[in-house]
TrEMBL record:
Coiled coil: 398-432
Keywords (A to Z) from UniProt: Coiled coil, Magnesium, Metal-binding, Nucleotide-binding, Nucleotidyltransferase, Transferase, tRNA processing
Pfam entry (one): HD
Protein name: CCA tRNA nucleotidyltransferase
Cofactor(s) listed in the protein's UniProt record: Mg(2+)
GO annotation terms (biological process): tRNA processing
Source species of the chain: Gordonia lacunae
InterPro entries: Bact_CCA-adding_enz_type3_sf (IPR050264), HD/PDEase_dom (IPR003607), HD_domain (IPR006674), HDIG_dom (IPR006675), NT_sf (IPR043519), PolA_pol_head_dom (IPR002646), PolyA_RNA-bd (IPR032828), tRNA_adenylyltransferase (IPR014065)
Alphabetical list of PANTHER family matching this protein: CCA TRNA NUCLEOTIDYLTRANSFERASE 1, MITOCHONDRIAL
The HD/PDEase domain, residue ranges: 272-408
Highest taxon in the source lineage: Bacteria
CDD domains: HDc (cd00077), NT_ClassII-CCAase (cd05398)
GO molecular function: metal ion binding; nucleotide binding; nucleotidyltransferase activity; tRNA binding
Gene3D superfamilies, sorted: Beta Polymerase, domain 2, cca-adding enzyme, domain 2
């Protein structure tokens, strides 16, 4: 590695192998690249596949979204594509971008840019450039500043004036210009840098790490909507633990998600407890291992934030113990406050907060000691979040005591089996009173109003306590309740 913190030389054989793989991947797109390249070549214009598309081709993970850059102005690009594309949109044309769909591929073509920034907002003064090199140097990271020329024969020359391939081979996130200039132009790039740590498994170049540490306050220039979008991509990446740790260590998390570094509680020799921060990262890792398929945004957020109420509820007890009473209640409130501040959809806020609120419920289970009533209430309170709650409580076991861990896993298995047995017998997903509102009004001789709702809730509590009741049993129970109230 060079003294400036940027990557040095890497294995030439690996370089050759990855480039050869990228060529094969791009050849498989000849049905799109050849006619597209021909359009631009015949019109006397350059066309390059660029950015994340080239990066992903080299990494062997190229998808259906393809990004291009060209010397042609937007109006020319529009004219060339309208007769070729299956669908067309030009909502980004003022920034030089034209979007189309061709078959299964979503394509964006942007005119060379040579923007300038005022270092106050992140909005550039859009200026069209005249060369590929000018366009590449304004990009966020060197791994995203590689290009492949596209012509009538498809993919042609590989262009890498900023040595992005060396950074990619070294697994480094670095900037084309100095990171101070890059992040000053657009502070969101600091968060994008750690997001790529999560998505690619790369690490930050030393000078990038230092710049984020010194400049993290600049992120406050960015709207919460854009911050939220990056956080979601980060937490749903393949390596979110490493990315979150980088956020915390550089101070960036303190600016956008302060509750996470806030879990780093000081532990003294007299009052020992788990490192809440490291425990939460472990729970997140274990929750990810329990996912069935695609990344589960709600489960991952709940796993990361399930203990954020502990710092506010920590109490030193006599004899050296530490307690965190009601941290799940406090934590759920903190989740709502933070996620609302980040403008998450109401449903996401509600689901994550509810999982945090319920995550301790299992710990009262204790070797199958719950009654069927307690199991019904657990299922009813979880509602559609039951599967996620089961995964969260399993992930929350981070003890190093193998015997205790084995016992907890057995308890989880036992509870899930009891839930399955009750589900089969009682359809727990639709626990409702055994009499509906009309039957309640007819039996009690009352009109619609608060009394009906109170009677309905009483019958639902009986249903949770005793299981399904026959019609006669339900009517007798309702008459008893009504009589105890004096018929009013």
């Amino acid at each position: 590695m060079r003294s400036d913190g940027r990557p040095g030389t890497t294995d030439p054989e690996r370089r050759t192998r990855l480039l050869a793989g990228a060529v094969i991947a791009l050849r498989e797109l000849d049905d799109v690249l050849v006619p597209l390249g021909t359009l631009f070549e015949n019109a006397g214009h350059e066309l390059y596949l660029v950015g994340g598309s080239v990066r992903d081709a080299v990494l062997g993970r190229l998808g259906n979204d393809l990004d291009f850059t060209t010397d042609a102005r937007p109006e020319v690009v529009s004219r060339l594509l309208r007769g070729w594309a299956d669908a067309f949109w030009d909502v980004g044309i003022e920034f030089g971008t034209v979007g189309v769909r061709k078959g299964d591929h979503l394509i964006e073509i942007t005119t060379f840019r040579a923007d300038s920034y005022d270092q106050v907002s992140r909005n550039p003064e859009v200026t069209f450039g005249t060369s590929l090199e000018d366009d590449l140097i304004r990009r966020d990271f060197t791994v995203n500043a590689m290009a492949v020329q596209i012509g009538s024969s498809g993919a042609q020359d590989f262009r890498d004036p900023l040595d992005g391939l060396t950074a990619l081979l070294a697994g480094l996130i670095d900037t084309p210009a100095t990171p101070e200039q890059s992040f000053g132009d657009d502070p969101l790039r600091m968060l994008r840098a750690v997001r790529f740590v999560s998505q690619l498994g790369f690490r930050l170049a030393p000078r990038v790490w230092q710049a984020i540490t010194e400049m993290n306050g600049e992120i406050e220039r960015i709207t919460v909507e854009r911050i939220r979008a990056e956080l979601d991509k980060l937490i749903c990446g393949e390596f979110p633990i490493e990315a979150l740790d980088a956020m915390v260590e550089t101070g960036l998390a303190e600016r956008v998600l302060p509750e996470v570094p806030g879990m780093k509680l000081t532990i003294d020799e007299h009052h020992q407890h788990k490192d809440v921060y490291q425990h939460s990262l472990t729970v997140l890792r274990q929750a990810i291992d329990l996912e069935d398929g695609d990344p589960d945004l709600v489960l991952r957020w709940a796993a990361l934030l399930h203990d954020i109420g502990k710092p506010a509820t920590r109490r030193h007890e006599p004899g050296g113990g530490v307690s965190f009473h009601h941290h799940e209640v406090v934590g759920a409130k903190m989740v709502r406050k933070r996620m609302r501040a980040l403008k998450y959809p109401k449903a996401v806020v509600s689901d994550v907060a509810q999982l945090v609120f319920l995550h301790l419920r299992f710990h009262g289970y204790g070797d199958g000691a719950w009654t069927d009533s307690a199991v019904r209430r657990y299922v009813t309170d979880a509602g559609p979040l039951l599967d996620r709650l089961n995964k969260l409580v399993r992930a929350d076991c981070t003890t190093r005591n193998k015997r205790r861990a084995r016992r907890l896993q057995q308890n989880y298995d036992d509870l899930e089996q009891r839930i399955a047995d009750l589900q089969a017998a009682e359809n727990l997903e639709k626990v409702r009173p055994d009499l509906d509102g009309n039957a309640i009004m007819e039996l009690l001789g009352v009109p619609p109003g608060p009394i009906v709702g109170q009677a309905w809730r009483h019958l639902k509590e009986l249903r949770l306590d005793r299981g399904p009741l026959s019609p006669d049993e339900a009517e007798d129970a309702l008459r008893e309740w009504w009589a105890a109230r004096g018929g009013k």
